[in-house]
Amino acid sequence: MTGSRWMRPILIGLTAAVLLLAVYFAVLTLVSGREFALAQFGQFWYFVLPLAAGFGIQIGLYTHLRIVTRHTDGSGKVVAVSGGTSTAAMISCCTHYLANVVPVLGATGLVALVAQYQTELFWVGLLFNMAGVVYVGRKAVQATRHMVQMESHA
């Protein structure tokens, strides 16, 4: 695959990571204010940045996979599963923000539980992220190999 073919997936992945960070800051700022958002980021940046990067990598790989499967006999099911993996990582990434939103709904017990396990939820998000990157990455490598074989036989 040539370098120019990689530019679109890379740019889309970077955009996804930046958008995830924007959502992170927007939600926290809207719920608890700018100072709280900055304090939370300062306290948990080492979780937030890898989660955003992993999400961006998954979206970039997903984009690459879509490009490759469009040009081969690749299955659309692979794309759907990888999209589901990205969504699961995003949801697990943001689960700990329930601690800020749920009090409005009146569920203080749930808030206490989520707040108590905030770090563990970050780790779950990172595990989902790694699993998604590995899974989508493997599918992208397989599809790319298949595409290269098809092009060499043409």
Task: Walk me through the structure.
The protein is mainly α and 154 residues long. The protein has one domain. Helix 3 packs antiparallel against helix 6 and helix 4 runs antiparallel to helix 5. The two termini are 16 Å apart.
Keywords:
single chain; 154 residues; mainly alpha; 90% helix; 0% strand
Give the SSE layout.
Blueprint lengths: L2 H30 L1 H37 L5 H19 L3 H8 L2 H9 L1 H36 L1
In terms of DSSP E residues, the strand content is under 5%
Give the overall silhouette: elongated
Mean pLDDT: 75
The number of distinct helices, counting runs of at least 4 residues, comes to 6
- Low-pLDDT segments: 72-76, 78-83
Total tally of structural domains: 1
Percent helix range: over 70%
Distance between termini?
Answer: 16 Å
Largest sheet features? none
Can you write the helix and strand succession as a string? HHHHHH
Radius of gyration: 18 Å
SSE class? mainly alpha
How many beta-strand segments? Answer: 0
What is shown here, in short?
With 154 residues, this protein is mostly helical. It contains six helices and no strands. The protein has helices at residues 3-32, 34-70, 76-94, 98-105, 108-116, 118-153.
